[in-house]
Structures are given as C-alpha cells and as structure tokens.
Amino acid sequence: MNDKTAAPRRILTGITTSGIPHLGNYVGAIRPAIQSAIQGASTGESDAYFFLADLHALIKCHDPEAIHASTKAIAATWLACGLDPERVVFYRQSDIIEIPELTWVLNCNCAKGLMNRAHAYKAAVDANRETPDTDPDYGISMGLFSYPVLMAADILMFNATHVPVGKDQIQHIEMARDIAGTFNFRYCDPEKPIFVLPEAMVDDDTPLLTGLDGRKMSKSYGNTIPLFGDPSSNQSQVDGEKALRKAIMRIVTNSQLPEEPKNPDESTIFEIYRAFASAEEQQVLRQRFEQGIAWGDAKEVLFEKINSEIAPFRARYNELMANPKELEEILQMGAEKARRDARKRLEKVRKAIGIKPLAKLKK
Q: Residue 70 in 3-state DSSP?
C-alpha cells in the first residue's frame, strides 16, 4: 500500500492528573505533542487523541481535591498552550465509560505472569524485600499491579497506532501489544483483527530539564519551575510573571564572581535557556558566559526568554481557570467524539467474546 492510500496514524497521549504542570512538562511533553498534532492535522498524516488520565491518578493519589484541581489545571494548560479541541479528540478518561469495561475484558485475557514483570510492580516488591519481616506485596494495590492493563485499554479502545512515551514506558506499550495479540488470536479472524498493535514513539532529542536544585526537574523533588503560577489562587498575568521570575531566581549556582568566565555547559540556567532559544541566541549567551556574566543577569535573560514564549499562554490559562464551565464543555465535546469510536469498538469486542443479545427484539 502506498503512502497516498495508507490510513493515517493515530497518536494517543495520556496526561495523569496528579500534579500541576511545570516547565519540564511543557518542554518535554506539552510543546512537542501539540506541535506534532498541529503538523499531523495540517498534512492529514495523523489524527490525535489527548486524554486526562484521572483513573490512572487514583493509583497514587488519594486526595480528591488534588485530583480535581490537577484535572482543571492540566486541561487549562494544554488548551492554553495551543491544543485545538476542534482538530484533536481531547477528553477525560473517566468520561469514557467503555474503558473500564474493556479493561475487565483485557484483564481476563492477560496472563498474571505478564503483570509480574511490570517495572513499577517489581520495584515496589524489591523495596519491600529490603525491609525485614515485610510482605513482598505490602502496600501494593491492584491498581498499581494491573496498571498496564488499564493503559492497554486506553490505547486499544481507539486503536492508536503510535503512543509517545518515555523510555521507562516502553514496556507498557509492549504489554499492550501482547494483550492485543492474545485477544486477536483467541477471538478474531486472522484477516479481521479487532485491535491494532500499537508502536511506542520515543524521542531521544526531547530535553529533560534540570530543576532548581541541580537534580532532574520533578514535583517529587519539589524543585520545579511553575509554568503558570499557583492554580489555587485567582492570579493575574502580573502574578504569574512574578511567580516565574521568583522561581528562576532560586536556581542554584556556584560561587563564581560576576566577572569570572563561566562554563555554560555546566550551568542549569544555560541548559534551560537552550530549550527556548534559537541557535543564534544560544551563541550570544554562551559568549557572555565565557566573558563573564553575573548570575543574576543570566537568570534575568532566562526569565525574559521563557516569559516571552509563555506569556500569551498564561493569559488564556487564567481565563480558562476562571471559567471552569468552558473547560467542562470542551471536555464533554471531546468525550462525545471519543465515545462514538469507543461504542463501536466495544460492540465488536462484546460480539467477539459472546456477550450479545440472545435474539433481536421488535421495537
């Protein structure tokens, strides 16, 4: 089949609603995913599904208010940064009631041994074994254990062909392929499989930002730079800028004096700057580092560069955060589009496994 007649790729991206987006999320996931979706929609080469993975969030987060606040902030962030709900399918996972049913069906076709090999489960068991007189499964919920099956349902429900993931998630895509293959082999005509086998998309060029303290930027370390400030407050555009500047000014640096030459390749400031600046802009700042630049001045350059890119997004983010009704309407519109596809696929699954009406009844 040539490229002109080939079906478009379907790219699916899930965003777990267990935190508030920070600069690392923007550079590593949000910006490249939106750019890819825009390009795919304009060329017709791919369509894109984006979902808020609130069911996944329940595995680790048991704070209802945190789940709710994260869902709101993440939805507003993606939309503010340019995700077009008219050109992609943007929905909340829990609104697609077909997904839990498919998860159960897949659970019944998934070997327990496959789940035993999941990295997250094995890591939790290993941690328990390091503690004397502790059950290997202590503190491990069925949600954590069977997480890859729910992820497989997310992917297979919409027959996603490509799933952007980090290297640590490749195993889950391989498991989804295994689960899909088992189901197709058990229930389907070889020429008419219900599920497509998805492929992992790993971009080794996507930058991973360093946080304020020199470690990888992560909310678990408390070293993140907030993208749009505090979502719990009714902040203004000015407040968001102040929060960004304040965070950047907290980046840890060494004790070199302003006039001393500095190595940009050993600087968190310059590393983050590279994720936003052009090659020419990077070269200019590199020269200033090598000639000697005060850390405060370098941080100010970084702030101005980041703020010039995200300030327009921040304005839209604040609008959406102040209008949750608009957010909910967008999510419901996406859910309806997603469920049209989900209902059709689940009907095929039900028919394949023998869960179907005993006879047709007259209306």
A: helix
The helix/strand/coil state of 204 is: coil
> Which tens digits make up the pLDDT trace of 229-260?
765 555 555 688 999 999 999 999 998 998 89
Query: Which CA distances in Å does 341 have to 63, 89, 106, 162, 264?
Result: 32, 11, 18, 17, 50
Q: How far is CA 152 from CA 17, 18, 104, 263, 353, in A?
A: 18, 20, 11, 45, 18
Contact 139, 128 (CB under 8 A): yes
Rounded Cα distance, 28 and 39, in Å:
17
- CA dihedral (80, 82, 85, 88) positive or negative: negative
284-292: long-range contacts (C-beta < 8 A, 24 or more apart)?
A: 289/261, 289/262, 289/263, 289/264, 290/261, 290/262, 290/264, 291/261, 292/258, 292/259, 292/260, 292/261, 292/262
Widest CA span in the chain: 87
Residue 50 pairs in a beta bridge with 13, 90
Q: pLDDT tens across 140-190, in order?
A: 999 999 999 999 999 999 999 999 988 888 999 999 999 999 999 999 999
The dihedral region occupied by 56, where left means phi > 0, alpha psi between -120 and 50, and beta the remainder, is alpha
Q: What is the pTM of this model?
A: 0.89
User: How many Å apart are CA 85 and CA 75, to the nearest integer?
Assistant: 11
